[in-house]
Every structure is written in C-alpha cells, then in structure tokens.
Amino acid sequence: MMDKWSTRYSRPREGVRAADSALLDRIRNIALILLTVALLGVGITGGQAMAFRSDTENTFVNRMQTECSDALSQVNTLSRNGGSNSAALLGRIRASVHAMEVINEMNNSLHGGSGYLVPVETFTNLYAIIDSYSNKLTVGSVITEEQTNLAASLTALQEQLAALR
Fold first, then answer.
1. What pLDDT was estimated at residue 112?
2. The domain containing residue 115 runs over which residues?
3. Count of domains forming the chain
C-alpha cells in the first residue's frame, strides 16, 4: 500500500512539466534575442572603430605629406639663397621633420606600438643631415653635400608617404 502512495506523489504531473517547459523556452528565446542584439552592437561599434583608425591614418599621412613638401621646398630655397637666412630656413626644416616624427609616433601609439608609417631611422638620418648642415654652416664650410643629402632624403620620404596611399 505504501508503494501506491509514494509513486502517486513522486511522479511529476504533466501540467506542471508543460508550464516549466514553456517558461524555459521563453527565457531561452529572450536570452537568444539579447545575445543577438549585443553581437550586432559590438559589430557596429567595431566597424566604426576600424573606420576611425583608417580615417585617422589617412589624415596622418596627408599631414606628413604636407610637412614633407614644405621641408623640401625650404631645402630648395636653401640652395638658391646661398646662406643669407639659411639658419632660419634650417630651423623651419627641422620643425617640419619634427612634426612628421610626432605624427609617426602618434600613429604608432594608436596601433599599440606596431604602426609606424615611416621607419624611425628615417628621422634619425634626417636629423643627422640637418645637424651636419648646421655645423658646417656655422664654421663656414661647403654645404653642397648636405643640401644634396637632405633633398634626396626628403624626396625618398615623400615617395614612401605616397606609397602609403
């Protein structure tokens, strides 16, 4: 007789099972919808971040090209005026090179340390040529080689920047 009572109350009822199943289905559907919405949001946000990085890199390249063109035109002015205001022009060239170097560093920082637009050695080389030019200008030595090297290095940099487009 005891068996009759124990199986009677321990067996789940069909109505309760159906209600629990419907509730679980509803919760599962809501979770699936929320997960889908979250993934779409992440996809949209990620796409915008990638577009931002691309736009920023294009802006950096454009600005570096402008600075390089300015520096190159200053070098051409240096060779024509023969020293009357060469120190001031050399300072403007150095400022343009510095601006390009800062932009290069900013792009690298934006890409987590692996995004140099131009190798760092390019700027080290340009600064060495400018320093040599300045030193020879100070002592009155011939500066033809430095002018040629500076123009050649800036032209090579201009070509590197054009290749980034």
1. 79
2. 53-163
3. 1
pLDDT digits (tens, 9 = 90+) for 9-38: 555 555 556 667 778 888 888 888 888 877
Residues 6 or more apart in contact with residue 60 via CB below 8 angstroms? 103, 104, 106, 107, 117
Q: Which residue has the tokens 């201009």?
A: 158
Q: Considering only CA atoms, which of 65, 87, 78 is closest in space to residue 139?
A: 87
Contacts of 75 (CB under 8 A, 6+ apart): 93, 147, 150, 151, 154
Phi-psi region of 13 (alpha: psi -120 to 50; beta: other; left: phi over 0): beta
Cα 50 to Cα 62: distance, rounded to the nearest angstrom:
18
Q: Note whether residue 66 is domain-resident.
A: yes
Let me know if residue 62 belongs to a domain.
Answer: yes
List, as one string, the DSSP characters of 40-78. Answer: HHHHHHHHHHHHHHHHHHHHHHHHHHHHHHHHHHHHHHH
Its pTM stands at: 0.70
21 located within any domain: no
Q: CATH number of the domain at 128, please.
A: 1.20.120
In a domain, 104, yes or no: yes
